[in-house]
């Protein structure tokens, strides 16, 4: 279960949380629902029938939600939503997190989250996972919970919801929240699991988080109230002490039940009343504790215009983490009425931050003292209203990096931004608010429910997309240069400034040196302000790709109305206009030969290309031009390297589709090779490399694929020395060849006009020059796999001495012909995961989240695997291998029971059904179908492949792949272990 240090509002959500309804994609789905008109505003507190969420607010209520309150004080909100079809999403929010604990109760809110799942009125001990799986909900995906500083949230996405299953689910959830068992035996079972979670989440990242909490929130409970708790408080927990915490905070007045899904609101409301109205615990409600206010030290004085009075500063030495400076200007947090005027202030704050951040990015792109820097305002855990500044220095001169960032901020504090700067950010906000209106029928019920949970946590409201857009557009006259300057100044004023510097080297800085650097006056930097005034860029002035190409073939695939077309130059495209996805178009371009095309000696350029290829420019556009040309547009440019193809993807909208196609095609035909993005990518790669060593999971992220692919250097994370040897000329040589060769496949799925889109394709991809076949590097076409061995490969990490990871992997296969079998392997791995979870987590408490997964490279004939892994104490590594071997052997010897198989198949069935409500699922399944028609046929059997099997078939698959002599092993142990590492 996820533990959040604080669910804070991001800049993307700074106005009002949006809501919508959806008509899904497939034929059996309901007709589109007409959007309701935006209602007039409500004067704060003027109407007795104002929903409880909107008391004191004049924000137009979102009429899709139905709000109510039971006699016992429990509040609820329900709404109908058909995305995905048949699903109902339930969230139960308890207003109690780690800040509600006493010193001796640290970790109790999160511990309760576990114990509530363990056993309750209607669920026997340890039976929750199996119970919800039988209802079609998978553990960890559909069934989950999280604890933050201020709340605990129980989550369930119930697929294929029927009146019977909904009633049963609400019954089970009500028993969990209102009548958990909380016995001594359950406490004994859950504390080791929480301790395993604490161990797995420890290390350098946890030390930095704790140091930041202590430095920034000194004197407040938040300084030492991590939701995970402490070893002592968890070990000292008793049945009585845990029950006392539960009785104090788990009360109807502190609980909100939120339900959004494919059912009538009256029906959903009836279930809430039926199962929660009778909850009347004895005793009086206890008021929430005080979270305190930031307080400056006695005698602190303001020494610079961009700083509040200086408080605590701290230097933390972490050899494997990149250097980073973070400081915060803190103000007391106060609950406010969530009014339109309040939100207009938030929008002005957002404009101020966006302008500064764009200037900081411009400064970083010019090269110099820092790699990245950002300003971000957050309301933190109802404890502080804070403006954070983060800086990643380049090189050892951290003082210069801090000074350069502060100089950009200082300029923003004394001079108004230009109207052009404001208009640019307003255009970005406008499209951000317009897109939810266009796509209001695409938003899943789970997202709507989560948005409402977050609104409750920050004590604000939600509004419809139409209301959000209307308020924003009507507010534009307020966003003047003077207003933005005033809000900028307010963002950097406060009660106290506190700082933290993370450095790799002892002696680089002291607490006092950091304090002095923050206190030092800086001269405002006008350079990037002037650079920001560059004129906008127009697509109309860009060079043509070439002569529009001719369509040589256009035919139906015979599948879901998907059309395949071909151009004279060899480019092929799959087009699927989907009217049920209004306002959204997804574009994917596959080209070239992927990893197979890159020579092993050029391996370091692969990761650099993923980072820098797009930003190195195209046609007449550099990186800054690419930013400007997409202002106010919904356009994207993601790039990825696959086994046998390179991919460019973007989500856009109908009005921007033609220009999106131009950007992709121009990248292939008119690439630029600006040097600065390459140099910046090199710096980032070198800075990041050491971070992999901080934990077992980091080492696996760095090295696992390298070993799974037989130590093929193309799958190795390049070291800083290898990165240093790369050059801009080498980068261009590798990627110029990759962009110019190999077949091109374009997929366009979503809301678009076919005729207009074909015409746009003719001018872009149809106009490309004919391409040579993608070269396959000599000796690298075949994928190798590790040889079976009982002797593990041993790697080392630099993290905590009680952390380790263990991996066991069985090679399988690859290729499109074997796709049906690969889907059956998903069933087998889910069976394996359930058993591994039960053995290592529930029974032994040795690992928090062990799991098993299957990979099957469709574009290759080999390279797939079934892999089991877990993070454990180093002493438990042999236990993991022994347990995994026993489970594998038992799956070979004995077929699974019918119930065990059903608990895996039903969630898989529901996952496929829900995924198939979006065209993106089909896009992924049909990658490469223009050259391999078998992928069209395999899509027709997708549901059968994932859900129709027998215990005997699973046993046969286990015998085919899971034999002990077929596996290889890897373990990641602490640096100080006596074992010798193969690779540091």
UniProtKB/TrEMBL annotation:
EC number(s) from the headed UniProt entry: 3.4.24.-
GO MF annotations, alphabetized: metal ion binding; metallopeptidase activity
Segments forming domain Peptidase M16 C-terminal: 237-425, 729-906
Gene3D superfamilies hit by this protein: Metalloenzyme, LuxS/M16 peptidase-like (3.30.830.10)
Pfam families reported in the protein's UniProt record: Peptidase_M16 (PF00675), Peptidase_M16_C (PF05193)
Leader sequence residues: 1-27
The family this protein is said to belong to: Belongs to the peptidase M16 family.
Record-given protein name: Zinc protease
Species for this entry: Novosphingobium chloroacetimidivorans
